[in-house]
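Batch job 17 of 40 flagged for manual review because the log was empty.
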Amino acid sequence: MLIRAGYNISFMTQQPTPMLAALSVHPTRNRDLRTAQRIMTDPDIPLYDYIDIFGNICSRLTLPIGTTTISCGFVIEDPFEPDIVAPEAQQLPIEQLPDDVLLYLLATRYCETDRLSEIAWSLFGGRPKGWSLVQDIVSFVHEWITFDYGKAHPGKSAWDAYQQREGVCRDYAHLAITLCRCMNVPARYCTGYMGDMDLPALVGDMDFSAWFEAYIGGQWYVFDARHNRPRRGRILMARGRDATDAALTTSFGTAILTRFEIYTDEDRLGHLKR
């Protein structure tokens, strides 16, 4: 399937404000692009890209005084297959984990394993390890948290989400990641495009989505506590330990968000663009 995706995001500033933006498709999807992916700004300002320590494409720019719009649009080819389900995947002992995976067992800003460890072991300590353990955690978080855009807050952590039982997709991801880490399953945060093309009805205004990956059976698998079912058409943008590492924009100063439009849909005329 050809998917058309992109965004128009505007910020207002009262002084020049440096910004980091992880608003590009992840390098692992570059070969799937069927049109150019260019980040544009209005007014036209210089920016340059680099690859961060998690393998994400980050753009550096400085917003001038006034309103700046950042936009991008592209067509990408996607197999539109559901997330892989591998119930036979086994959990590896910590001593057998690769060195670069151990990082995803540690506590982070939004994933406080120290505060949730006792709770995690009381809930899942007697469960079989491996795929079924991660799925049990996903199902628990899916039922525990009620989705509510009005409860979104940039400072909300996994502990907050557990206590408040309300939140958005990143809160589902943070809580599931934290519970996985507490049970010695490496888990990392992911963000990107997730359309509603595989759903029976529209789910509201389009937004970027958050999910997570767990390391079991010697590889990373996608899990989504918000939906608790295999989804189709994910377009990864960034990964990291939590939302701090995969923040779509980080401003070094005050930048007020004034416009936020995301689109993801089937490109039915894509054959004319190839």
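Reviewer: the log was empty due to a logging misconfiguration, but the result itself is present. The chain is about 15% helix and 35% strand. Unflagging and moving on to job 18.
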